[in-house]
Design a protein that fits this description.
The protein is mostly helical and 360 residues long. It has 13 helices and 6 strands. It has one domain (2-14, 22-345): Orthogonal Bundle (ABC transporter involved in vitamin B12 uptake, BtuC), CATH 1.10.3470. It has helices at 2-23, 33-38, 71-99, 105-122, 127-155, 160-182, 207-229, 231-241, 243-248, 253-279, 285-300, 305-322, 331-345; strands at residues 26-27, 44-45, 48-49, 58-59, 198-200, 203-205. The strands form 3 sheets. A two-stranded parallel ribbon has the order 1-4. Strands 2-3 form a two-stranded antiparallel ribbon.
Length: 360
């Protein structure tokens, strides 16, 4: 995992440099009913809002004495956060394992998906068709990135740092294109009015949040089965383990990488659409989602989908239950404290394997 630890350090330094441009977050003020209602996962009770889910792009001011903090609601929020982080992290891991560089533009795909849906809906396309088409276009855009940019750079022996910077450029291009077309203000693709959440074992959870949990589980299980039992899935695992040896075995690594970009970008698009259906969207929504996904990949193990799932659960649990003792403004700090602890004491993650490969 030497190359993974080095990549993380480069990633964090780059994020620090881009600062507010790429890492801005959407802050939802709890005192504002109109804003809070867009991300509500419950109903107003005793003049306090039940905690809505957050994955880094939505912060809710809570104190340790807040009566709205309760175990069932925090557990439900954990599952919702984990579902989104799992989709983003699994897609990132699939691409990362095959190309060995940090694909910053993966965060851009999280924002591209919902904005494509918005464009289609405004054009009169039925919402379900718009969602399916947007996911397909996300996959196509991921393939285009690989063919038009990354593959030529690899054939010119570009280093992983050059590829990382190229992906950062694509992210900035995607974000600014969205801002140019749709504006920087918050947009919505939510279906219908805000309704009271369903009471599930004492927690309030909306239908779209239930769908987020179910869709993430189904898609990740389907991906795991695909990678384990299909011919293409086995080829993708072979390329991830050793691209040169896979080539000697007759595997076309370029085609495998194309498939990895298509699947990973589609998963990112689905995650962004699910988030936008629940808490609306901004052009910068993808960066923090990407960062949380990468943290889940590192603490779970980049080579293990079950490990990434455990990492997403741990991340969501630490963030949601952490607000019992400290302000939710520190949720991101909690995530990166966990990241640093794993990098120092268990860099291979929960279920990852110790790798002797060096960065390429």
């Amino acid at each position: 995992m030497i190359w993974l630890r080095s990549g993380v350090l480069v990633f964090l330094n780059t994020v620090k440099e881009i600062g507010a441009t790429a890492g801005s977050v959407m802050v939802v003020k709890i005192g504002d009913f109109a804003a809070a209602a867009k991300c509500i996962s419950g109903v107003r009770r005793d003049n306090a809002w039940l905690p809505a889910f957050s994955v880094g792009y939505s912060n809710h001011t809570k104190t340790r004495n807040d009566p709205s903090l309760n175990l069932p609601q925090s557990a439900a929020n954990t599952l919702i956060v984990a579902g989104v982080v799992l989709l983003v992290g699994t897609g990132f891991s699939l691409i990362y394992r095959t190309v060995r560089f940090f694909h910053f533009a993966h965060g851009g795909m999280v924002a591209v998906g919902p904005y494509l849906v918005l464009g289609f809906v405004l054009s009169g396309v039925p919402r379900l068709i718009a969602i399916a088409t947007a996911v397909l276009l996300c996959a196509t855009l991921g393939v285009a990135m690989e063919i038009l940019l990354y593959r030529p750079l690899r054939r010119n022996s570009a280093s992983s740092l050059v590829l990382l910077l190229a992906s950062l450029g694509i992210y900035v291009l995607l974000q600014n294109t969205i801002s140019l077309i749709f504006g920087d203000d918050t947009k919505s693709i939510r279906i219908g009015p805000v309704v009271e959440g369903i009471n599930v074992l004492g927690a309030r959870i909306t239908p779209i949040q239930i769908a987020t949990i179910c869709v993430s589980i189904v898609l990740v299980i389907a991906l795991a089965v695909f990678l384990r039992y299909s011919r293409l899935g086995r080829a993708m695992r072979a390329v991830a383990n050793d691209r040169e040896l896979a080539g000697l075995s007759g595997i076309d690594s370029d085609q495998v990488i194309l498939c990895a970009f298509a699947i990973g970008s589609a998963l990112a698009g689905v995650a962004g659409i699910l988030v936008a259906l629940d808490v609306d969207m901004t052009p910068t929504m993808g960066m923090n989602a990407l960062m949380m996904g990468i943290v889940a990949v590192i603490i779970g193990g980049a080579n293990s989908i079950p490990g990434i799932a455990l990492g997403a659960l741990l991340l969501g649990m630490a963030q949601q239950f952490g607000v019992w003792k400290i302000s939710s403004q520190w949720q991101d700090a909690i995530a990166f404290f966990i990241l640093l602890a794993f990098l120092l004491f268990r860099p291979q993650g929960f279920l990852g394997r110790v790798s002797k490969m060096h960065a390429v």
